[in-house]
Structure formats: structure tokens, C-alpha cells
Specification:
single chain, 229 residues, mainly alpha, MetI-like fold, 0% strand, elongated
Length: 229
């Protein structure tokens, strides 16, 4: 095609991706899986990170970090075998659990640093006032770590939304995600650049909206601890 510098803007490609594909379903599937995997990562990762930081279990933290360093292909085959035997392929449960392999180590490793910044005297004062370790975690550690929770959650959602490998193997017609939908615009003979770029633009919208909503927490979380007195 000839290079055209002046052109007439059009929204036709946006209309076509919704007309020719189930892009709306892919969009909803991605949000359900990304937020579900992030929620699982927060429920399991926050107490884990607090315990590692509070009791100085650095080796356990490195072990959890190794799960994030390993290639996702190392987890894909076991997940595929387990979900095939349990007949859970093409379900939200399988993809949320698989994506937790991404979100859980990420949230845990990020939050260890935030919990280590909380003075030990605050936890000791809470224990003196009659709080159990669980209450000290809920009423003191979590409120003070909101910037870290926001930052780790956004990063987890981004990584989950961008994942193609798990969706390519574990998803089906009912649970296909946005990266898989974008991948379908690339065929053996051609690439539909118009619809491909329109779909890629729509994929970024959930993350952009989330960043605008909790922007102050993200900025505070990324800069916290950068300067030491």
C-alpha cells in the first residue's frame, strides 16, 4: 500500500471488531480473570508478605521470587494436566488460578518491602493494647500499606491482561481473553493492521482508567522509600 500522510480519520475499525468478533465477550473475560487473579494474589500474598517481613524470612521471600523468575512455560504443563483431569479447561477458575502464578509472587515480593518500612514499635503497641497478630495486620499494617497495595494491584492487572500463553492453551470459546482476540487478527497470509491497532487501543483502556482513579496511590507507592533520611 502507498504511504499516505494525509488521511481521513475513521472509527470503522472499532465498529468492525465488535461486529465480526465477540470482542465484548473477550473484554469481559479479561477483566474477570485479571481482577480475579489479582484478588487471589492479594488475599494470599498480603499475609504472606507481612509474615516474611515481620519475622525476617528472607530465604522464603527469595523462594517466592523464584516463581516469578521462572518462565511461565514451566507452570503451563502442570496446570494443563491438572485442569484437563479435573475437566476445568475453558473455565474462569482455571484461568484465574493459572494467572495467580503471575500475580501472587509479584504482589508478595513488592509488599515485603512496604511491610518492612512499618516500624516494629507500632505492632508492639498494638499487642500491648490487646490486638492479636491478625488484628495488627488488618488494622495497622494494611492501612499504612495502601500505596503499595495499589501499586502491586495495578502491576498485577497489567501482567494478567497482557498474558497470552495461558489463554492460548487453557482458554476456549467461552473464556478467550483480549490478547488471544488480538492474536486472531494475525493470519498466515496477512495482518489486519486497522482492526489490530483498534483492538490494541481498547485493551489499554481498563488499565488507563484504573491508573487515573488511583493515581495518587501509585505515585506514592513507586516513590516511597526512594529517599532515606
Amino acid at each position: 500500500m502507498p504511504l499516505v500522510l494525509l488521511f481521513k480519520p475513521t472509527f470503522e475499525n472499532y465498529r468492525l471488531i465488535f461486529k465480526r468478533t465477540s470482542f465484548g465477550l473477550y473484554f469481559i473475560n479479561s477483566l474477570i480473570i485479571a481482577f480475579g487473579a489479582t484478588l487471589v494474589g492479594l488475599i494470599l500474598g498480603l499475609p504472606c508478605a507481612y509474615g516474611i517481613a515481620h519475622y525476617k524470612k528472607e530465604k522464603l521471600g527469595l523462594l517466592i521470587l523464584s516463581a516469578r523468575i521462572l518462565p511461565m512455560m514451566a507452570f503451563l504443563v502442570p496446570w494443563f494436566i491438572i485442569f484437563s483431569k479435573l475437566e476445568l479447561k475453558d473455565t474462569y477458575i482455571s484461568l484465574i488460578l493459572a494467572h495467580s502464578t503471575i500475580t501472587l509472587p509479584l504482589i508478595t515480593w513488592i509488599m515485603i518491602g512496604f511491610f518492612e518500612e512499618i516500624p516494629v514499635a507500632l505492632s508492639e503497641a498494638a499487642h500491648i493494647d490487646g490486638c492479636s497478630p491478625y488484628q495488627a495486620f488488618l488494622k495497622i499494617a494494611l492501612p499504612l500499606s495502601l500505596p503499595g497495595i495499589a501499586t502491586s494491584s495495578i502491576l498485577s492487572i497489567i501482567f494478567s491482561l497482557n498474558d497470552l500463553l495461558f489463554a492460548l492453551v487453557l482458554a476456549g470459546p467461552n473464556t478467550s481473553t483480549l490478547p488471544l482476540a488480538i492474536f486472531n487478527f494475525i493470519s498466515f497470509s496477512q495482518v489486519d493492521w486497522g482492526q489490530l491497532n483498534a483492538a490494541a487501543t481498547l485493551v489499554t483502556l481498563p488499565v488507563i482508567l484504573l491508573v487515573f482513579i488511583i493515581q495518587k496511590y501509585i505515585v506514592k507507592g513507586l516513590t516511597m522509600g526512594a529517599v532515606k533520611e
